[in-house]
Specification:
Blueprint lengths: L1 H16 L8 H11 L8 H17 L8 H18 L6 H18 L8 H11 L5 H16 L7 H25 L5 H7 L2 H10 L11 H28 L1 H7 L2 H9 L3 H11 L6 H10 L5 H13 L3
Helix pairs in contact: 1-2, 1-3, 3-4, 3-5, 4-5, 7-8, 8-11, 10-11, 11-12, 15-16
Length: about 325
């Protein structure tokens, strides 16, 4: 028991001094090992009290510097994760009290655009905790808008910034799919997916490998950025496919012809052909005709043949 209290004191001291981040990892893991030896019975009162104090310290540090670098954003999310994880070791009513306390910090992290970086189980927990007091669509909309705004921080000379943008993209995909699964409501796709600005990302993805602007970067950074851009683009395209196959007429109404072409440009070959062949089965639309005319002048022979074939059949 004394070992637990000593480890808690050591972590609190390191947090206050900000001497390093090892209290988020090695010291935290050591503390969990000690706590697991006590979990079979109720925690002693003094241990429970010290644990609650540490939860508060972690929570307070989660909003210490949320507006700085990508590493600080991850630091904030990790602090909140540590605080929430420690709640598992408490008994009622302390557990409910501390979760209520952390809920206040959760909303501060929502406003600071850190909440989408939280681990999905933690994010899901606090979304669920609040859906009875906040309309679900409002809560999800706030989180998604914050995350899409932060995606624009993607500075291609910093691997950590691009990696954080990828984390936000993964969170957006999870939030959208979670909302649809929970409420069977696809009506927000026409609002949320355009926020992602896939055309901008597609341009970045296409231009980055050969861009002279980034030649000065080290190989590790260039490889990391390219990998992250690949993953981000795949997330965007997966969400577009979800939207298209749910309501293709809606996507034609919302997107401009130019944006529609830009998205199709980065589809893989199989999905590209499948989508074009489906488009010509839809009621006549000038945008569809515009898409086919555009790709009928492509530099790949198979795309030209396909587009001309479909164009000859369309609107007969």
């Amino acid at each position: 028991m004394n070992d637990v209290i000593c480890k808690i004191a050591k972590i609190k001291k390191r947090i206050h001094k900000s001497s390093s981040c090892d209290y988020l990892y090695s010291h935290f893991d050591d503390l969990l090992t000690e706590l697991n030896t006590l979990k079979e019975g109720n925690l002693p009162i003094d241990v429970s009290s010290e644990l609650c104090s540490l939860i508060h310290v972690y929570a307070e540090d989660s909003i210490y510097n949320t507006n700085a670098s990508a590493n600080w954003v991850r630091y904030s999310a990790r602090c909140f994760y540590c605080a929430d994880y420690l709640v598992h070791y408490l008994e009622e009513p302390s557990k409910e009290k501390e979760e209520g306390f952390l809920n206040g910090y959760f909303f501060q992290l929502v406003e600071a655009c850190v909440a989408p970086v939280l681990q999905q189980d933690v994010l899901a927990k606090y979304i669920q905790r609040n859906i009875n007091s906040i309309p679900p669509v409002e809560l999800y909309d706030n989180l998604i808008r914050k995350a899409t705004r932060e995606c624009l921080r993607c500075r291609l000379w910093s691997a950590s910034e691009v990696s954080l943008s990828l984390t936000y993209n993964k969170s957006i995909k999870w939030l959208i799919n979670s909302y649809i699964k929970a409420y069977s409501d696809y009506s927000m796709l026409k609002i949320w997916i355009p926020l992602l600005n896939t055309v901008r990302l597609a341009s970045m993805w296409y231009e980055y490998p050969d861009s002279a602007n980034y030649e000065h970067l080290g190989r590790y950074t260039r490889v990391s950025v390219k990998r992250c851009l690949d993953e981000m683009l795949e997330i965007h395209l997966a969400l577009f496919r979800l939207w298209y196959w749910h309501n293709s007429q809606e996507i034609l109404e919302v997107l401009s012809l130019e944006d529609l072409i830009e998205v199709l440009e980065v589809y893989d070959d199989d999905e590209f052909e499948k989508t074009l062949r489906h488009m010509v089965t839809l009621p006549y639309n000038e945008k569809i005709q515009g898409v086919l005319k555009h790709f009928a002048e492509d530099d790949e022979d198979w795309i030209v043949r396909l587009s001309k074939e479909l164009l000859s059949q369309y609107h007969l």
